[in-house]
Each structure stands twice: as C-alpha cells, then as structure tokens.
Amino acid sequence: MKAIQVKEPGNLQVVEMEAPEIIHPSEVKIRMKVMGICGSDMHILHGENPFASYPRVIGHEVAGEIVEIGEEVTALKVGDKVVIEPMTSCGECYACQQGRPNVCEKVEVYGVHREGGGRETMVMPESLVHKVDESLDWKEIALIEPFTIGAQSIYRGQVQEGDHVFIIGAGPIGLCCLKMAKQAGAKVAISDINEKRLAFAERWGADDLINPQQENVEEQVSRWTSGMGANVVIDAVGLPQTVEQAIAVTSVAARVVLLGFDQKFSEIAQVGITKKELTICGSRLQTHRFGPVVEMFNSQQLHVEDLVSHQYDLNEAKEAFQLMEEAHPEVRKVIIKL
Ligand SMILES: NC(=O)c1ccc[n+]([C@@H]2O[C@H](COP(=O)([O-])OP(=O)(O)OC[C@H]3O[C@@H](n4cnc5c(N)ncnc54)[C@H](O)[C@@H]3O)[C@@H](O)[C@H]2O)c1
Ligand SMILES: [Zn+2]
Ligand SMILES: [Zn+2]
C-alpha cells in the first residue's frame, strides 16, 4: 500500500509499505479514503512537534470504508463509511479517571505519536471508529475531526444561547469554533488579518468581523457588546499577544479558552482575572465529542463542505503540502484523496 510519510523533518514522501492486517478480534480494517491536512501535520513536517518521532505516517483527520471486521466486532460492518477518532489513553491516570482521556499522561495521537491514517489501509480498534451516514461525501467526512476540536472549545467555554463569543483567528479551527458556537445559539464576532478568511467567516454566519490590522480589537469588541465585553473568548491563533488580548476583551464572569501550543510567555495582570472572576482554560483534542459531531453531520445541519478549498490525489501529496506551505490567503482546508 501507499502511505504519506515524513521520513525526517523537511522530507515528505509517498512511500510503499506493507498493508496492516487484523490481529485482535475487536479490530477493523479500513480502506482509507480521505485525509485533511492540519497545521500540526505541517509542524511535524518542519520538525517542530516535540511529540513526533520519525519516520512517521501522518494523518489524523482521516476517514474511510470498512473492508474487513474482526470476530468480536459488533457495531460495524463491511461497507460502512467511518471516521477515525485518532487518540488513545491509558485509562488509569488522574485525567482518565476524571473522564478526560484527551489529557491523559500517556495520550497518543495517531499520526503524531503513532502511525496515522494518511495511507491506503489502516487497522483500528472498533472503539476508535465511528460510523457516519451513507449520504455524506468524503469531503465532508474529512471535516469531522477538526469539528470535534471546535466542539471541545465550545464545551470548555460553556457557550450558552445568547452569549457574545469572540473568536480570535478564522483559520480552519477558528471557523469550526464559529460554526459550533452559532449552533449553540451564540452571537459570534471573529478576527483575522486575512480578509479572505473574514469574508468566508461572514458567509458562515459571523455577526461581526474584526481585522486587528485595521481596527482596535478591544474597542471593537466593546462596541459590539455595548460595553459589556465578550462572555466567551476563544483564542484560535495562540500567540502571546492574542492570549493577552483574549483576557483584555472579556466581560465579567467570562470564560477564556486557549487552543495554542506556543511556549512564549504572555504578560497578564492578575487583577483583571480576579476582579471579573474569569475562567481561563485550555482545550486540547476532544473528549466524547465524536458522537454529537457525527450526529450533527448526519442530520445535515451544518453545510460545511465549502471549508475545503483544495483537493489532491494521494500521488500529489507533496503538491498539497507545498500549497499549505505557501499559505495563500484563499487556502482553507486542503484534503488528500487516499
Ligand atoms: N488545542 C487543540 O486541540 C488544537 C487542535 C488543532 C489546532 N490547534 C491550534 O489552533 C490554532 C489554529 O489552528 P488553524 O489550523 O486554524 O491555524 P491557521 O494558521 O490556519 O489559522 C490561524 C489564523 O489566525 C490568523 N491570525 C494570525 N494572527 C492573528 C491575530 N493577531 N489576530 C487574529 N487572527 C490572526 C491567521 O491569519 C490565520 O488565518 C493553532 O495555534 C493550532 O496549533 C489546537
Ligand atoms: Zn488536525
Ligand atoms: Zn491516562
């Protein structure tokens, strides 16, 4: 079978390797169909992901069709369209016991810590495979995983109907957060320095658009909320200054959700946090979000296919990554047909 492998930092190839076989009776074999390219795949390619080892088959936004099932598999059958939940946990540490396996001490992500789904065939435990509706096309199914990241942020920020939510960054993740916040009945303002992405966010229902290069973000959020400030702020950029901004634009009793992995320090005065009694939290991967997000996709509520701006074939994987590298303003989600 063919697979998309980062051999070492800077060297991505489509390689030939042996196809995996079912070993455990609770596993399924999947003919992979689609892979979305994510910012974290780019980090692995650049040697900037501390968790990745090389060579590594990448791909965690992946889906395919079941071609074989183990003897103990009950919920899935040959021919089912499925999406992969690309994460494993130990089941024993404090996080796991708290029902938060996404921050397990030993969490492993397929495509990062272990071999991913950017390949023609993959074997997975039944428990990490979610059946999706027959009527969905692969382009849509490829978006389910990033939408679970958005869903987790909405959950962590306790977004409620009528809340004013400010999302910093209209990249694929910020846009997934936008759609999920709108689904929750919130009003949403979103910022980006890329006008094309802002225009797309407007199409997806954003109530207010802010370009920080053209206007003062604090003033604009204040105006948009009639002086109250945002009840929930989601930082989907992850720079030291966006973390500072996120805290500065809050209302009283607000929630601030951070998604970035930057190691640089932000400068924040405690008084602003205490006085407003802010809840500041991280949001990493997802916990139990696949079920509800798959349900939303199945019921055709979302209409999100247009997030995919470019599609490539497996043998064009290098071109697809090159396009991501060039960061054209009109590029949103790039997918590879496997
Ligand atoms: N926590 C998680 O589980 C998780 C999962 C996936 C991605 N992420 C993180 O989420 C972030 C967003 O991911 P993405 O794939 O959408 O990235 P992306 O790079 O495609 O999008 C980021 C967007 O932010 C915009 N931007 C840059 N500076 C800005 C500023 N000062 N104000 C407003 N917008 C600004 C960019 O123009 C771009 O459109 C990244 O930090 C990524 O590492 C976290
Ligand atoms: Zn991703
Ligand atoms: Zn654990």
TrEMBL record:
Pfam families, sorted? ADH_N, ADH_zinc_N
Q: Which family does it belong to?
A: Belongs to the zinc-containing alcohol dehydrogenase family.
Can the keyword Oxidoreductase be found in this entry's annotation?
A: yes
Ordered alphabetically, the record's keywords are: Metal-binding, Oxidoreductase, Zinc
Protein name (Swiss-Prot/TrEMBL): Zinc-type alcohol dehydrogenase-like protein YjmD
Superkingdom as given in the UniProt entry: Bacteria
- Natural source organism: Halobacillus karajensis
Which PANTHER family does UniProt cross-reference here? L-THREONINE 3-DEHYDROGENASE
**Which GO molecular function annotations are given, in alphabetical order?**
oxidoreductase activity; zinc ion binding
Query: InterPro entries this protein is in?
Result: ADH-like_C, ADH-like_N, ADH_Zn_CS, ER, GroES-like_sf, NAD(P)-bd_dom_sf, Zn_alcohol_dh
Where is the Enoyl reductase (ER) domain positioned along the sequence? 7-336
